[in-house]
Each structure stands twice: as C-alpha cells, then as structure tokens.
C-alpha cells in the first residue's frame, strides 16, 4: 500500500500552509470572503480537474494524438447542510489539436473518468460526477 503524508500548518488569520508529500507548499484560506488564496474545497475542484486532465493528455499521447491546447472547466455544486460536501461536479474538457480524433478524445476521457482518475474515484461515492467535452479545431483556436 502506498502511504502519503502531508502536513497543514496554521498561519494565523484563517490562513493555512499545506505541505505536500513531495515538499511543495500551497497556501489555503478558510475565510472565503477575502479571496486571497484558494479554499480547501476549491483545491478539491482543481485536484479532480488536474487528475483527469493529466490522464487524458497521457492517454492521447499514447494514441499519437497531438494536443496543442487543453483546459478543463470544473463546476461543483455543494450541499446546503453540513457537511457541505459536493453533491455534483461537472467537468467540461476543451481540447485543441491538429486532426484530433473525436473517438480517441472520447475514449481517453471515459478511461480517465471510469478507471484512472483517483480523485474522481474518491469523490464519486458522495458526488455525482459528469463529464462533457468539445474539440476546437486548431484553425479556429488560432
């Protein structure tokens, strides 16, 4: 079993410093009114988007697809009552590339969503996760 150990240090005034197992620091705030740093729930949205995006790029690379631009728009809908966990998360993948195969893109996203993305697998028992995608031709994106 692969154990990971992170640390979170209190930095006063509703700020915390997270240290990843690899030693990388991230600043978090718990008072979302300031908007000076990401909240833990915002970081969770970034984590699921980053997890899926890295899977998709890796799978498309193995399929010899050339991605020139890629972003994932992640939207989360939280419960009103406590704990205010996500009840649904939507990921919209927007890819650009020379002659990207729609079949390859669809397969890559489905594989990430159903098999490889550890973050979505962790969230899925309590949040409904849906994915959509669009391919923007390189000539339109330029």
Automatic annotation (TrEMBL):
<dbReference type="InterPro" id="IPR036102">
    <property type="entry name" value="OsmC/Ohrsf"/>
</dbReference>
<protein>
    <submittedName>
        <fullName>OsmC family protein</fullName>
    </submittedName>
</protein>
<dbReference type="InterPro" id="IPR003718">
    <property type="entry name" value="OsmC/Ohr_fam"/>
</dbReference>
<dbReference type="InterPro" id="IPR015946">
    <property type="entry name" value="KH_dom-like_a/b"/>
</dbReference>
<dbReference type="Pfam" id="PF02566">
    <property type="entry name" value="OsmC"/>
</dbReference>
């Amino acid at each position: 079993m692969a154990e990971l150990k992170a640390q979170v240090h209190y930095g006063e005034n509703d700020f915390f410093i997270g240290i990843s197992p690899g030693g990388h620091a991230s600043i978090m705030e718990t008072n979302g009114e300031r908007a000076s740093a990401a909240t833990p729930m915002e970081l969770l949205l970034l984590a699921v988007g980053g997890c899926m995006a890295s899977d998709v790029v890796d799978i498309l690379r193995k399929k010899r697809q050339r991605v020139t631009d890629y972003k994932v728009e992640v939207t989360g809908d939280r419960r009103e009552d406590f704990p205010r966990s996500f009840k649904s998360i939507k990921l919209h993948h927007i890819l650009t590339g020379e002659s990207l195969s729609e079949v390859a893109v669809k397969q890559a996203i489905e594989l990430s969503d159903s098999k490889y993305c550890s973050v979505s697998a962790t969230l899925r028992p309590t949040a409904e996760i849906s994915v959509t995608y669009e391919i923007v031709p390189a000539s339109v994106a330029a």
